[in-house]
Amino acid sequence: MHTYQPNRIAQMLTRRRLLQGALTGVGVGLTLGAGLFPRLARADTGSNGGSKRKFIFVFAQGGWDPTRVFATEFSNANVAMEADADLATAGNITYVSHGDRPAVDVFMNAWHSQTTIYNGVMVRSIAHEICTMIAMTGTTSGLTPDWPAILANADRDSFTLPHLVLGGPSFPGDLGVAVARTGASGQLEALLNGNALSMTDLPISALRSPSQALVDRFVAERAAARAAVARSTVEDLLNSDFKTATKHAGDLKDLQYLMDFTGGTSLADQAVVAVDALQKGISRCLTLAASAAFSWDTHQANDTGQSPLWEDLFSGLGQLVQMLAAAPGETEGTLLDETTICVLSEMGRTPALNTFTGKDHWPYTSVMMIGGGLIGDRVIGGFDENYYGENVDPATGDVSDTGQVLSAEAIGATLLAIADIDPTDYVMGVEPIQGVIA
Questions:
Q1: CATH number of residue 425's parent domain
Q2: Do 279 and 351 sit in the same domain of this protein?
Q3: pTM for this one?
Q4: What CA–CA distances, in Å, run from 167 to 84, 265, 266, 274, 307?
Q5: In the predicted model, what is the mean pLDDT of residues 224-249?
Q6: Mind giving me the DSSP string for 173-218?
Q7: Are the CB atoms for 56 and 342 separated by under 8 Å?
Q8: Predicted confidence (pLDDT) per residue in 108-130, tens digit
Q9: Among the residues of 194-340, which ranges form H helices?
Q10: N or C terminus: fewer CB in 10 A for the chain?
Q11: pLDDT for 213
């Protein structure tokens, strides 16, 4: 049974109002707090209903072509499938197999029982930026927090870096205090080990240990004092988040000796950091990049461009899942049993090839989830003869003409429900796909 806690007051706060409040009276604490957590957030951390569910998001930026793995549209005359691709089955999952993508076959055969595929997911746009926001937040507002930020914030006091972004998009909204980026060039690691001081145009000398300890003590005491006094709801939220950010900054100093936050650019390298962060209890959610930015945007030579990307994606996913399966869980058998992995892209690609043998943007796509919290070995939804997404019954997950649209919002609502967070606090007008929740 899911236990839900509302967080409505904080949803009324915009990023601009929070930033304006943060810049008033915060003082020296910003050097530690906002340097690592650039946006302050609501004080109410909500509740995850006792759930220990962890999450990893893997984002393929640019718009992937689901017909190369997920969408088995061989009998659809309107869809250009690869001539040398085959229909394959692993358990109850049908997928597209190709000789250039052996990692897909290896993955499906090994992990189909813990995998759920959603076909025909609607993102309502064909613009990269808008589709990315919709896929990650369910809205077109850059001020709305994304699914991993919401999931992480629900239990943020239990983690030093509740949502750690190793790559890919991030929309913290008003939950920035729960989100941190490692940086494409290892900026977080440089902040922790002091190398960031050498990256400035002007030379800066680090404080000696006794002086640094005095600064840290002053900031901590100042944060605690401000948190104890509030003259308005907004000030109370800001003061509480300033205290949280200050504590996280202090904890991070100790973590530099326990963990390396330099994740690299490949999915396999990022997976090592992600699993380490989950094992050490540093983060609840992580976001990883499946490849370089916009590399999936194959307006030309779609087949030759997409195929190696899918191979790299499933090779990296295989390593990620294997590491999770080999790690002991906190409350369940393995870390994989406690972790839900969501693999997605901001959009799909057109069913037909263009004059450059490429494929353009399409507002229907596919999403894959792997791991615990799911009823695996299943494909949800599908595509009709026009390659539009089909409706599904949220109670069962079956295709139904009277069901609801399988939208990005429904995917987000399902993720929140898996974590025992009430989706109606964040997504209106859709129901989670209860039929896939274990």
A1: 3.40.720.10
A2: yes
A3: 0.86
A4: 33, 8, 10, 11, 21
A5: 79
A6: TTBGGGEEE--TT-HHHHHHHSGGGGGSSS--PPPPHHHHHHHHHH
A7: yes
A8: 999 999 999 999 999 999 999 99
A9: 209-227, 233-255, 267-279, 302-326, 335-338
A10: N
A11: 79
